[in-house]
Amino acid sequence: MSKEMEIEFKSLLTEEEYLQLLQFYKLPQDELKMQTNIYFDTPNGLLRQLKQGLRIRLLPNTIEFTLKVPQHNNYTYLEITDNLVTFDHTQPLLEQLNQSTSEVLNYLVKENIPIESLKETGRLSTIRGESHLNPDTLLVLDKSSYYGVVDFEIEMEVTNGEEGRQFFHDFLNQHQLDYRPAPKKIARMFERKNSLTS
C-alpha cells in the first residue's frame, strides 16, 4: 500500500514522433512493457464527476489497485495504491479486496462513495517505454489501445511542478514537437466508448 503525489505533464504524439523518441532514447520495442487498465466507477459516475480515476492495473509481475485524486492544479494527483496478489475480472471487485487493509477502499468510504456499487466501466491497454532523464524526471512514452483507437503520448513525471513544466516545454522544443493537450487516458477511453454507443 502506498500514497504519493504524482506530478506529470503530457502531450499527444503522432506515431512517427513516438517511434523517433523510442529510437532516440534507445528503447527497443521488445523491451517495452505491456499493461492493462480496468476502470471502475459507480453507475451514476460519481468518481468521474469528481475527476477521480479508479483502476486495476495488470502488469507483467504485479497488480495495482489505484485511485487518482486531483489536487490544486491540473497536473498533480494524489495516488493511493494497494498491491494485489490476484485479480479475476469475472468476479465482483469487492469480493477480491480486504476492506480492512485497503487504503483505496477506506479513502472512498470516507469520501462517501458507495463502494458496493462499483463496477467495471472500461479497459485500455498500453505499451510503455520509460527512461530517466535525470534524478527528478522520468520520460514515459505510451502507445495505448482502446475500443478500436490507437494513440500515442509523452508523459513526463517530475518532482517539482514549476521546474518540471519548464523542463517539459524545453524538451518539446528540443525535439521540435508540437504541444497537443492530452486528456487523461481514462477520459479518452470514456469519450471513445461513449461515441460507439451514442
TrEMBL record:
SMART domains: CYTH. Pfam families: CYTH (PF01928). Residues 4-196 form the CYTH domain. PROSITE patterns: CYTH. Transmembrane segments: none annotated. Coiled coil: none annotated. This is CYTH domain-containing protein. It comes from Candidatus Vagococcus giribetii.
